[in-house]
Each structure stands twice: as structure tokens, then as C-alpha cells.
Amino acid sequence: MLLELTVAEQRFNAVMEVLRDGLTVIEVADRYGVSRQTVQGWLGRYRTGGLDALADRSHRPNTCPHQMPADLEAYLCELRRRHPHWGQRRLAHELARVGVDPPPGLTSISRALVRNDLIQPRARRRRKTDYRRWERARPMELWQLDVMGGIWLADGRELKAVTGIDDHSRFCGAAGLVERANARSVCRVFTQALARYGSPEELLTDNGKVFTGRLGPHPSEVLFDRTCREQGITHRLTGVRCPTTTGKIERFHKTLRAELLTGHRFDSLAQAQQLLDAWVRTTPNVPTRPSPWPSQPGASSDRPPRRLRSRRSSHASRSRWARPRSPAGCRPAA
Question: For the chain, how many structural domains are there in total?
Fold first, then answer.
């Protein structure tokens, strides 16, 4: 008849073979297929705690000097409960703003949230290998501009947001609300941003009708194209059905919806614009690079994917939809 022994009982038998039967530690270690140091450890544990001490124990250390302090972890969890849409980067930025120096790492914040059941651990999504990340080397080299809907007033009307961010610094240079995203309203928000911050060298948009007329039955230059040409800005377009090319502005919209718009209806356009301006002023787009326009020496000079189409005409190659740029339309000096 076979008997199934627990781990503690097997270790107890090994200890008894040494203490009662007089076998050497080396002989017992050979019989049980363990090292002599392991048998010596069993003997010591048996002498101090008896049979119960031979059971499996946790290998967790008694202290962890680099673990997040309890008061800081409590404050972190409080921030997360008040702002459930904030991720690790935003939480680290907010901790730095209140004077936590140095702020905990992103992995430490994630583990603290998991320990307190504020997020559910899950496997990381695999990045698509055909995506190629790119970023301009310095501020004011390229802006990304887009129009977003889904902003509701209390009377049921929907507003549109015209937003633009700098490709390098992620600084929000344009954030205006309009009732209708037609050519004049979009260009008004765009020109106001240019008057405040200056003109970028290039501008990247999708193929919406307000931005380009190249996909219509009669391709022509629209008001937005003309504004870019008069300001000396190269207007670039994404490929058709390629939203990942303008992924930075799309991610900005996701944060805007989560932190300001979800479940919120505004009394008027003026109130909504006031709250949007306050949110833009206080919300970091990229905490690791908060300054808007200073040049970054040694930054990456990756160029955007080749599928971007330029709307700027030149003597060597001239688009059939763009008019020649006159010398008087050069970008004014900053």
C-alpha cells in the first residue's frame, strides 16, 4: 500500500535519519536528491520550530527598501480613484507637480494600482510590426490638425473641436470649438493659432473636405489650402484610410474625451470653450517634454512615412491641385 507524504513529512523523515538513525548529512542528501546545505537547513528549522517549521515558507523578504512608502501609495490610490482615466504617466506627472522627488517609476505605479485592485493586470498588446514610429526633430517643424465631434450642449446641439498639436513637443497650439466644422470656422481657429504661436513649417491633416479638395469630383484648392499657401506652410495629407499617421492628435482626442467630455454637457459654447482652455493649460500632453518650443539638440530626425502627400508646389514638381506660391507668401519671421 502506497502512502502519499506531504513535503513536511518527507523532510521530517530525512531529519530523523540524521538525528535518530545516525546517518551522515551527505548520505541523507544523496538519498533524497538534494544538497547537503538543504539538509542542514532542515535540521536547523526542526530544532527551532519542530515539524511545523519544515513546511513550505514564503520567500518574500521581510523588508524592501526600494518599495513605495505607504503614505505615498495611499495618495497615489486616492488620485486614481478621483481620476479613473489617468494612467501611469499622468499619475507620475501629478506626483512630481506636488513635490514628490523623485516620483516613482511607471512600473512601480502600475504594481501599486494592481495591489490595490484599481486596475486589472493583463497581457501587453503586441505592437503591429508594420507600424513605424516617427517624430520630427524640433518644435514648429510640423503640426498635426484635426476636427473632433461628440461635444454636446444641454439643449442637444453638438459642437466640434478644432485641435492642433506640435509633432515634437506635443504642445497644444490650437483648441477651438465651433458649431459647424465648415471651411471658415476651421480656418478661423487655425489662423488664430498662427497669430498666437507663429507658423509651422509643415502641417499634417487627414483628407477631410474642409482640409483638401483633391478627392472631390473636381479637384481644386480649398480655403484651408490657400491659407497654408499664403502662410508659407507645406500642407501634408495622410494616405486614404490611414488614421495611424495622425496618431498623436488622435491620442490627444482620446485623453480629451476621457478627462473632460465623457458624461458632461455644457450650457453654452462659451462655457465649453472656457473649460476647454483651462483643461489645455493644466493638462500635460507629454510629461517628459513639457516645454513647447525650445530646440532639442540630438533629437531624432525621423521623417514621416512616404505615403504622406505634400500640397506645396515647387518649380521641379508642381501638383496639379496647388497654385504656384508667390514670393510674397513666404512665412513671416518669428
Answer: 3
